[in-house]
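Q: What structure does this chain adopt?
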Amino acid sequence: MPFTHNTSGSSDWCDPRSPTVFLFLRIGNTDREDGTQPDAVTVPETAALLLDLKELNLFLQQPFVGLFQSKTSALAAVLGQYCLFTYRYAEGGNGEIAHQAVALLQFATDAGRDTMGDLAHAYEIGFGVQKDMQKAAALFQRAAEAGNVQAMIKSAFCLLDGEGVARDAEKARTLLQRAADAGSSGALFLLGHCYEYRFVPRDNERAVTFYQRASDAGDLQAMAQLGKCILNGNGVAKDPARAVSLLERAAGTGESGAMVTLGRCLAKGEGVPRDLFRAQALFQQAADEGNTDGLLGLAKLSWPRDKAHAVALIQQAADAGDVTAMHYVGEILHRDAHDLVRAVAWCKRSCVVQGGPVPGYLLEARIPKILWRNSTHE
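A:
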């Protein structure tokens, strides 16, 4: 979805997902009464869109455009956001549509439209422009100062991670609080997450407070995390039955993290009668939605009954970037396959991803420094 949602009260604003957008695009069947998007965009349709974008950008360069800039900037914003949403992963984000779309976003931003966050996102992911986190962070900050709630959140995480800007946890906390005060349940969840995992010192009780507020506002991730905290007694009294109730609600509406935690409860019989078949179904559903913890849950159910299948699932999760799975792969290679070189390579990869210390099982192996320094992931 496009990065920004704040329409700034513009009467001629068109949401990129609304039927109105398709009046401007020669794409799909525009004769549909509901204006819905076609299931797939074909090559001829893409060519037609590109022609529209080129023609519009040429038109916007004409001197008379300023006479009715409000309408033209609205159209530029709509088409730029639509393309960012639809084509951001096509052609590595470097196709002609991407370049034309960024030009439209720049025009809309210069005309005062609320598209600065979208332009920042383009620089963040390298869509139509060279990836530039410093420029992205600066644009996110400007959009946040202008009141864009999503930009406040993105700017906060730039500050937390030191992406394009110096790390500053206090400024990040302030931005997330501003977004929460503006009504963002997602910001409430992120505040909880930061108090639990990112801020120093950590404060689990405050984390639970924010998770509760976000959950009450309907945030499914917060509901899942709140259930997990209650399940483990983390910042709140331990209550497995109450935790399962929350997890059931979140999982029932498609939250994959809740599916995984509920699956673990069912596998252990914690707060709910033990049910391995349902646990497996939940892990599989989460895995199908791209949650690597679902793969690890399936692996745990298979181990040691079907060790080969379990290892394949762990490897699949590691290949998808799961740090825990990378550690498991390293441990399996070290202790079962006695392949210290590849074990170290996976360990190094996991340390790069999470920025953490070397796992104990590799320290115990007393790895020669030359092996650690020269190893590469295969």
